Amino acid sequence: MRAVDIIIKKREKEQLTAQEIDFFVQGFTNGDIPDYQASSFAMAVLLNGMTNFETTDLTLSMARSGQVLDLSKIVDVVVDKHSSGGVGDKTSISVMPMVAACGLPVGKMSGRGLGFSGGTLDKLESIPGYRVDLTTDEFKAQLKEKGIVLTGQSLDLAPADGKMYALRDVTGTVPSMPLIASSIMCKKIAAGATAIVLDVKVGMGAFMQTLEEGRELAELMVDIGRLAGRKTVALLSDMNQPLGSAVGNALEMIEAIEALRGKAPSDYMEHILHVTAHVLLLGGRVNTLEEGRAMAQRSIEDGSALDKLRLLVSAQGGDVSYVDDTSKFERAKLVEVVKAPRGGFVSQVHARIVGEASVALGAGRAKKGDPIDYAVGFLILKKVGDVVQEGEPLCEIHANDAEKLKEAHAAILASYQFSNEPVPPLPLFYE
Ligand code: URA
Q1: What is the pLDDT of residues 151-173, one digit of tens each?
Q2: Ligand 1 centroid to residue 179 C-alpha, Å
């Protein structure tokens, strides 16, 4: 078998066999197939798609590119939640400690920033010392002792996705249903989660722009999860505007931590309570969503969720004092307020424009392995439905470069639209 023949077959819109997919995935993982062939393969899949059979084979092959953990000897249930990617989406950083505080073990493998969407690992690394490269043995030991793990693809867990994810980020091959579904689900399967809540983002700042596409991705991932013997559900949530206020790594970490003190924007608080309630329900900790929500709320009020985050950060080598004092996070040198050019009701804060502007400020990568600037980003102060007066602050820009600051200012103005008529707030969840 030759890699080039598999690429050509996909270019010609033919269906690949499980053996061909496995040959490609394992060859890429062990270095026999170079990055340029893997990029070309990813582009062929993006352009020509895959059948659900091919996507399932791709997922299972990527999961098997390293170890597939069986955690049943360590804990009865391991829950996980994963987002399909969005702007200002720091949900996992708040939800996972809440779930662990409510008594369910959490073992999660996250990803880095991808295109215009941020990544949990990059956000966590804004805490000095935080390790996202746990070995399998470390993953298991921490899950057993602390009941919470939040790490990245290690050399031995879904390494194919680690390599492919970094390539997709810089080769224009992110927004592909089979590549997203397999990337998310191979991590969940490899890390041994038994109950998985998928948060599928829909809208201008998501890879799935319409509800129909979001639904298709959600159904595909739920099918793959169930086929692999995992309890899996999916929520469809809004990503037309950024979630919460903060966009950018350290700024988002601060917001996610403050949420565990009950001090975050109301849309973000509502979002994390709802997602946590679903995880608690699927994991069998509660019998109804209402019960789950009340339990989630208590974990914030009694400080147990914040304690779990402290435990997580210290277990993975991070400086816990950042959780106790968020003013320690690296700050940008330049902070500028964008003022409303007119009065009215906010009718749009285009999430993709904001996400791309934050990458341009340095919060994301232009090419594989680029360093990122943790401090830069935005605080979105006005959201869809809010009333503004001319000259009122819409957004704070945090930048480390005057030229980039200027470009970001223009981008933020372009992301906002206003109406003379009242505009209803956007829903947080669709289904
Ligand atoms: N999250 C992932 O882990 N992979 C993707 O491809 C998109 C979002």
Answers
A1: 987 768 899 998 998 899 889 99
A2: 8
By the 10 Å C-beta count (0-12 exposed, 13-18 middle, 19+ buried), 35 is classed as middle
180 lines ligand 1 (CB under 6 A): yes
Total count of residues recorded for the chain: 431
79-324 has CATH 3.40.1030.10 classification: yes
Name which residue sits closest to atom 6 of ligand 1, judged by CA: 180
Q: 332-419 belongs to which CATH class?
A: alpha beta
Active-site residues, by number, are 82, 161, 168, 183, 187
Which ligand 1 atom is nearest residue 174's CA?
6
Tokens of 143: 């899950």
CATH entry 1.20.970.10 includes domain 3-63: yes
CB 298 within 8 A of CB 100: no
| pTM of structure | 0.91
Q: Where are the domains of the chain?
A: 3-63, 79-324, 332-419
**pLDDT tens-digit readout, 214-242:** 999 999 999 999 988 899 999 999 999 99
